[in-house]
Amino acid sequence: MANEIRFGIVGLGMGRGRANLIPETSGAKLVAVCDIWEERGKLAEKELGCEWIKDYDQLLKRDDIDVVGIFTPSGTHGQFLIKALQAGKHAFTTKPMDIRVKVCDEAIELAEKKGLVLAVDFGLRYEPDNHRIKAALQQGAIGKLIAAEMSMKWFRAQSYYDGGKPAGWRSRLETEGGSLANQAVHFLDLLLFWLGPVKTIYGKKGTFAHRIETEDTSAGVVEFQSGTLGTIFSTTCSFPGQGTSITLTGSTGSLVWHDGKVSLFERMKQPAAAEGEKPGYVLPENAPAPEPEQLNLVEFPSPKDLPKNIIEDMVAAITSGQPVQCDGKTGRESVALFCGLYLSSDTSQPVTLP
Ligand SMILES: NC(=O)c1ccc[n+]([C@@H]2O[C@H](COP(=O)([O-])OP(=O)(O)OC[C@H]3O[C@@H](n4cnc5c(N)ncnc54)[C@H](O)[C@@H]3O)[C@@H](O)[C@H]2O)c1
To answer: Least packed by Cβ within 10 Å: which of 80, 102, 141, 198?
Structure first.
């Protein structure tokens, strides 16, 4: 293998942003981009000084490419991953890993068999604060976790669903899930990262404000394997948009996360203030409560060698064997979760995840 890890990127919408990172990443080289959209391909070729290849199969035939990054419509990710792995390339895809679990399983098995790196690009996994939160929860900073609520209230216009290449792919069941699979999957992955696997899910989905086959709103109740209860809500109908909140309730405190910022992180002073009975009658709701104590996220660790993005992550994984932030098995979990909610909605039954 050459000294530098040599990348090929397919799909130049979101993929263009990731391709831009490669020339500025130590140990990485952008060899080629691939897109059926000539205008995007030629522009990237000119601006990034790499080659534009129209046909994905031709990109895979290149023996000067070590890693393929996939940024095509979501329902194609699994097949594109499998083809890349079959061609002997390390591979990663943008979120979601795919919109079907079966094809994720095939890719995972193939990567294991061939000893290749398989990763899913979830930007929130490269944020140090999200690792600090995980460490805080593991250390019991807010006690035993009782509940987790995720609420994503975003807005997407009809033109968002009508656009893209091929036009309208975001609106079709064949190529996209819906607000849960496409947008909220970032936060499903974050919940799984913080709280561990989900045992069961019960949910409902619906299409309320867009002309699309997929859902634009969904609501679900989950039980994590740990016993923690959760709710998940996602919509792209919320104008003007209220962002995403995750609220964690522990037995001794709470943490509230909103759009990447922690707005509340408090627990009871330990040990809880032991106030004796006061003379006379006190309304029960006014009985003494424990004193609150502010917690500070910077006091919890984040990994020192945390890559800044998927490109750094792939370079580290291939050159030094460091595990990627989200491998295939982990990427599959959020796919199983949103597929579980869709199935639950279609059958009106809770779904137990394997
Ligand atoms: N991480 C994030 O925050 C983030 C943000 C936006 C999109 N995405 C993901 O990126 C993916 C693409 O979304 P987008 O918004 O960039 O869509 P897009 O429609 O703008 O871009 C998709 C690109 O893929 C190309 N393409 C389609 N089929 C192809 C094929 N067979 N061979 C080669 N090129 C092909 C299209 O020509 C187009 O340029 C989706 O899976 C989406 O979920 C991730």
So the answer is: 102
